[in-house]
């Protein structure tokens, strides 16, 4: 997982998996990113291949923490497989997903 700052936002890149085996470390890093930065928190999921319920819970929890800090959590470059999970669970209605057109601009 990588964290970098860019034009009023932080970008956090998630690795290959966000599941029960990885959430503890990812949760800590996401929460530290929320607490230490300002502006939008962009979570780049381009490399993500697998997510489970605990991983989804970390994203929702991080969104709540970001909202409480006056920030927005935005998912960027969501792979089609992961987007299907968000749609099936209806989390696409809860989590902000950056459109492909906005990501290119």
Automatic annotation (TrEMBL):
<dbReference type="Pfam" id="PF01740">
    <property type="entry name" value="STAS"/>
</dbReference>
<dbReference type="GO" id="GO:0043856">
    <property type="term" value="F:anti-sigma factor antagonist activity"/>
</dbReference>
<feature type="domain" description="STAS">
    <location>
        <begin position="1"/>
        <end position="105"/>
    </location>
</feature>
<dbReference type="InterPro" id="IPR036513">
    <property type="entry name" value="STAS_dom_sf"/>
</dbReference>
<dbReference type="InterPro" id="IPR002645">
    <property type="entry name" value="STAS_dom"/>
</dbReference>
<protein>
    <submittedName>
        <fullName>Anti-sigma factor antagonist</fullName>
    </submittedName>
</protein>
